UniProtKB/TrEMBL annotation:
The name this protein goes by in its record: NUDIX hydrolase
PANTHER family xrefs: ADP-RIBOSE PYROPHOSPHATASE (PTHR43736), DIHYDRONEOPTERIN TRIPHOSPHATE DIPHOSPHATASE (PTHR43736:SF1)
Family per record: Belongs to the Nudix hydrolase family.
Gene3D superfamilies linked: Nucleoside Triphosphate Pyrophosphohydrolase
Keywords recorded for this protein, A-Z: Hydrolase
One Pfam family this sequence matches: NUDIX
CDD domains assigned: NUDIX_NadM_like (cd18873)
Higher taxonomy: Bacteria, Bacillati, Cyanobacteriota, Cyanophyceae, Pseudanabaenales
Key word Manganese present: no
Record domain Nudix hydrolase: where: 8-133
UniProt source species: Tumidithrix elongata BACA0141
Molecular function per GO: hydrolase activity
SUPFAM superfamilies in UniProt: Nudix
Amino acid sequence: MTYRNPAPTVDIIIAMIDRPHIPIVLIERRNLPHGWAIPGGFVDYGESLENAARREAKEETGLEVELISQFHFYSDPNRDRRQHTISAVFLAEAKGEPKADDDAKNLGLFHAWEMPTPLCFDHEQILRDYWRYRLYGIRPSLS
């Protein structure tokens, strides 16, 4: 019998704590699917989720991040049309000048009132959950 398992991924919501109103970093993807996304990517074999989050943040934004907490897991089988993935979303903080690199063709700093479009994958839902948490202290439910 052949087993097919979802691929583990990480997404990192990076708050720029040295900027007014503490914006977050989003990248514009170089590869399909095109659009804006939370920095992140696939976990390498033998790599912890935390190390994958730090690596992906560095590769895509050039930032050394401090992981603050694990925010939530997102596992809808349709969240990524390329394959079934499960994402561990981390909250992180950084200072400095982010720059688009690796899979990112562009990068921007955004607040809740100015999200870019289109957003890839299920990142609209993730960011809606994040801003609800950030502004009102309400974490996403498990439903």
